[in-house]
Amino acid sequence: RHLQAAPTTCFSLSLSLQLEYAGASPVQLRFLRLHSRLATQKVSYSCRPAPEQGQPQPEKEIRFLADSREQSYAASLQGCVLDNESSITDTIFQFTTEELSLLPLRDLAVFHNGDASHQFGFTVGPVCFS
């Protein structure tokens, strides 16, 4: 007896003002959703605190807009803290869903108190259907 892994199709993010995925037309996404049972996507938040900053920053709220544009995910980001091992703090968000219309993510927003004493960025990984 041989076990065969389910085929997986992934689309990578291209740079633009909105989150758009190279090679992922609406027709192709619809086809993938019809023939898949699971979708996954990973987003990494990285921040670098200012060296003079001694206290951790307050938490920030982040919202991820689903592909359906009718639903969003909300989460809290921990304050950016300088430690001895690294000057960059990473937080990983892993999205896995059987509701295939929710992925890929289309937009994200960070809500904070206006504190701009650190640098931060996001890396949006590919969306994979299997």
TrEMBL record:
Q: Which SMART domains match?
A: COLFI
The record's listing under InterPro entries reads:
Fib_collagen_C (IPR000885)
Ranges of residues in domain Fibrillar collagen NC1: 1-130
Q: Which GO terms describe its cellular component?
A: collagen trimer; extracellular region
What is the species listed in this Swiss-Prot or TrEMBL entry?
A: Spheniscus mendiculus
Main subcellular localisation: secreted
Q: Which Pfam families match?
A: COLFI
Recorded protein name is: Collagen alpha-1(I) chain
Q: Which Gene3D superfamilies match?
A: 2.60.120.1000
Cellular localisation: Secreted
PROSITE patterns per UniProt: NC1_FIB (PS51461)
What keywords is this UniProt entry annotated with?
A: Collagen, Secreted
Annotated Gene Ontology MF terms?
extracellular matrix structural constituent
